[in-house]
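ok here's the first one, seq then struct tokens
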Amino acid sequence: MRVALEKAEEAFGAGEVPVGAVLVESSGRYFADRNRTAETGLQTSHAEHLVITAAAKSRGDWRLEGCTLYSTLEPCVMCAGLALLSRIPRIVYGAPDNRFGAFGSVTDILKMSGLNHYPEVLGGCHKEESAKLLKKFFRLGRKRKQKKEEKR
């Protein structure tokens, strides 16, 4: 999770929503990235999506069995769905996402019946550090917006 937090800090510095993710294989090899939606102009460039895609490409297999996904923020529906489709057995996240969280905050994708894969999910890992960075980012964003409006 420490590497995911470092990636979230990088995202913050780049003006992206500060979310970092790491996908760790059972061998210890890992893939790490950060949110890049503003950079790429693509709504799919969430940190989780990027590390899952990189790992699948590297492995030459869309099944990511034996891996653990770490994210500083509870995955959204898109990223949670991708993790399930990728057969990732364990997901660990930091702060809950009260706007888009798909593992209990807004919805719980694991309560869907009939799925052929139900990962273990653990939330709250380094929760305070993750939440603090997100709050700082959005607080600064509101201040910038207020300054722009005052100049008009």
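and now the second one, same deal
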Amino acid sequence: MLIKQNLISFVLIGLKLIITKPKALIHLFKNLNKSNPNITDNGEYAELLSIGVSDTKQGQGLGKKLMIKLESELISKGCENLSLTTDYFNNESAVEFYKISGFTIFYDFIAYPNRKMYRMIKKLNLI
């Protein structure tokens, strides 16, 4: 849905990637399908594509503040669910952060080229 709503921007970025980093574009398209064939995923959620806090700033509540701000924006737009994907292996601290933030594991899947991932989801509290 996000790609459909921002198709022109997505195409322009894709054209830039074709010229500057063609392998990155191939990687991007192969990872558009983030699903598990054994799970029904209707895609009715906003998707957080990336969030990060510098190692030197972790533990100061910045990640929590970023999530609260994002969720507030999504709720104001009527969004009911927020989803994200994160690595399955060697990622305990991030998975724990997401769980503390109210996310649950929806399913796991294999991303290109052979990277096991979690899709996590959170029901937003609409006012």
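notes on #2: The beta strands are 46-48, 81-87, 104-111, 115-123. The helical segments are 2-5, 7-20, 22-30, 62-76, 92-100.
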